[in-house]
Amino acid sequence: MKGIANEIRAIVTHALGPLSSLTPGEASFKENSDRWSKKEILGHLIDSAANNHQRFVRAGYNTAADFPPYSQNDWVRIQKYSESEWKDLIALWSAYNLHLCHIIERLPGEALSAPCNIGREEPVSLEFVVKDYLRHLKHHVEVILEQ
Fold first, then answer.
1. Which of 140, 143, 146 is nearest to 47 (CA)?
2. What is the model's pTM?
C-alpha cells in the first residue's frame, strides 16, 4: 500500500502548481450546464476523499460493508463548489489526500480483504477500494489539467 500512497503524493505534488496557476474564472468555467467546472471536479475529488476516508477507516475494523452509497451529483450540487474559493478547494484537496496517504500506509494487511460497500450490489475488498481511489484520482486530475 505504500506504493499507492506514494503515487497519490506524487499526483498531488505534480498538480499543485498547475492547479494554482488557474484563475478563479478558468476554474469556474463550464462548457455547458451538463458538465462540471474544474472547481466542481475538484470538489468531487474532495467528496471522494471524504467517502473513501470513511471506508478506509471503517474497513480497518470491518464495518464498511454497510456504508451508504455516494450520490456524486447531489454532493456537488448541495455543496455548491462553484461558489467556493479556488485556492481553498486546492488546499483542502491537497491536505485531505496527504492524510489519506498517511492512513493507506498504516492499513493493517489483514484489513485489505475487509468488505466495503461502494454503491454496488456486492461489497468489494478494501484493497480494491484503495486501488480504485488512485485510478479515480488520476482520471479526474488529468481531466482538470487537460481542459
1. 140
2. 0.94
